[in-house]
Task: inverse folding
């Protein structure tokens, strides 16, 4: 138990890095981390470096594993299952694709055009930006493993339920016709060498870092400002756990934004440290990643307005239920 706790603190929470940054701030900058400016600089440098290190290692590992499961092979695996088991598998496969919601849509088109039920592809579309493995590890590094695992479970449940409802409602007619006509080419997957898999994983790391680095810098900056500059009583007055509307407000505020989950995690961390309910913070994070306006605009290009509204309604309701549930019972996980 002691060894696991030590590994968790040093490898995930990176306490060694926090101590190094503390020495930098206090001895080089001449600032105390107990003061606002010093605390902000420490929070920013530590979180940015920690997120980039964890993100690079995790994306490399996930991408290497993913190289064994290209889209065509993934489609064939999904095609073997029917009903709720297919939705569960679609949601689980979404957790190992380190993409944002916008990047997941081309795969959604490919799966749908290949004949997979739209409910399965929507399960994939919901879980892919919401519950990828990298975000789970980062959640554990910021909060703890109980919260990270609970987040995974509720995210997958939301994806399965959402996909199942869409499947049962027979909404295929609300998918744009060109999606079904866009048949993919059946090709044999070339066997990659270990070196090619390593190069693929490296390229994925570079590609994803290029896409998310700005959101991470902005997100950590907002988190540092919340943590060190905005008084706790102001945040509590707006998003305090005792406010019945806090989850609803956090969800509505998150929808117009666009950021990767890695950029929203530092904000969620700062909000919780200021006394905001864990459910409220997670609702904000989920709304930003699963319901952002850019992803909705892209999705509108492949589905009709009614299906888009049903999808957004299901996910919004799910996020609200999850948020209020975490606020009510989250203390058991802290």
Result:
């Amino acid at each position: 138990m002691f060894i696991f706790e030590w590994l968790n603190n040093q490898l995930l929470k990176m306490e060694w890095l926090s101590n190094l940054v503390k020495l930098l701030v206090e001895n080089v900058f001449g600032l105390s981390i107990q003061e606002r400016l010093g605390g902000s600089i420490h929070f920013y440098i530590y979180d940015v470096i920690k997120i980039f290190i964890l993100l690079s290692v995790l994306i490399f590992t996930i991408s290497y594993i993913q190289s064994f499961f290209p889209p065509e092979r993934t489609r064939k695996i999904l095609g073997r299952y029917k009903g709720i088991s297919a939705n569960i598998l679609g949601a689980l496969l979404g957790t190992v694709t380190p993409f944002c919601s916008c990047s997941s849509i081309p795969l959604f088109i490919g799966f749908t055009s290949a004949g997979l039920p739209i409910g399965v592809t929507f399960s994939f579309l919901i879980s892919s930006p919401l519950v990828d493995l990298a975000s789970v590890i980062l959640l554990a590094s910021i909060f703890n493993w109980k919260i990270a695992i609970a987040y995974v479970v509720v995210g997958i449940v939301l994806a399965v339920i959402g996909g199942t409802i869409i499947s049962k409602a027979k909404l295929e007619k609300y998918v744009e016709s060109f999606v079904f006509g866009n048949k993919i080419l059946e090709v044999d997957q070339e066997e990659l060498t270990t070196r090619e898999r390593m190069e693929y994983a490296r390229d994925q790391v570079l590609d994803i870092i290029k896409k998310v680095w700005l959101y991470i810098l902005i997100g950590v900056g907002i988190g540092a400002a919340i943590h060190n500059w905005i008084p706790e009583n102001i945040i509590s007055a707006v998003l305090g756990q005792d406010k019945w509307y806090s989850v609803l407000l956090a969800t509505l505020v998150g929808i117009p934004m666009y950021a990767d989950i890695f950029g929203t995690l530092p904000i969620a961390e700062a909000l919780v440290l200021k006394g905001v309910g864990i459910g409220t913070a997670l609702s904000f994070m989920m709304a930003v990643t699963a319901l952002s306006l850019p992803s909705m605009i892209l999705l509108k290009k492949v589905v009709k307005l009614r299906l888009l509204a049903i999808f957004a309604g299901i996910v919004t309701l799910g996020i609200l239920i999850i948020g209020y549930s975490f606020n009510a019972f989250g203390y058991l996980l802290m």
Remarks:
- Residues 2-173+199-332 form one domain.
- Residues 184-189 have pLDDT under 50 and may be disordered.
- The chain has one domain: 2-173+199-332.
- The first helix runs from residue 2 to 12.
